[in-house]
């Protein structure tokens, strides 16, 4: 009798585990579809979902999502570089000169706090909230910048700040590096808005391609740092990828059928509300 009960209990745990994994796959699918439709990075959608719906700690949600982003963005860079030739590698390098060292320093600070027995979840949670609020603003500002960009009489990577442009780009990279490492949010939406502002004569396709090319080493390095801190759940990562990769494909095909002027403001409001919840938590 005891053996039968133990067997039933074991089957119950297996069934429950399968349901949870199906939930991860479905969440990955939904986030992938939204990313494909809106172009907003998965971190701003996936990380809050992992924290609020599946009760992962903010640190594990951020660490797992960073490696998730590095993998999902790799295919996009392959298309932009190989097919479209739409990556400005000079700008990518300048951003990386700031962001990659900033990511390393941020991981070292988090490790120090962890070794000092200080709760890093509070730091990550607050940073996540700030990043989501900034992303919500970026979703709205991007449309404004596109409408008011100077006419592209000829393609140019000339920036707003003249001889100071490389230094300003590096400083922007430092900001993105620290924020993305802390929150997993910002490599997509904030990165593209920063590039639209810094390089107003750069075609939109090059802005997207350059931002993707910069995001991959940044998210990979930051994700590896979180892995060293024990903040990556690889089972979760695999199940999210199973759902998100076809989701992005579906969303990309649906994007032309859904009015952008309705979807983007709604998404911005949602991100703003979630951001405030993290900040005030």
Task: Give structural notes.
By secondary structure, this protein is mainly alpha-helical. The protein has one domain (57-233, 259-279). Helix content is 80%, strand content 0%. It has helices at residues 2-38, 42-52, 58-84, 89-115, 120-147, 165-183, 189-198, 204-228, 234-254, 260-279. It starts with a helix and ends with a helix. The model is unreliable at 2-6 (pLDDT under 50).
Short description:
The protein is an all-alpha fold.
Termini separation (Å)? 48 Å
- Envelope shape: globular
Gyration radius, to the nearest Å?
Answer: 20 Å
Q: Whole-number average pLDDT?
A: 81
Q: Note poorly predicted spans.
A: 2-6
Supply the key terms:
281 residues; mainly alpha; 10 helices
Task: Please describe the topology of this protein.
Elements: H1 2-38, H2 42-52, H3 58-84, H4 89-115, H5 120-147, H6 165-183, H7 189-198, H8 204-228, H9 234-254, H10 260-279
Helix pairs in contact: 1-2, 1-9, 2-3, 3-6, 3-8, 3-9, 4-6, 4-8, 5-6, 5-7, 5-10, 6-7, 7-8
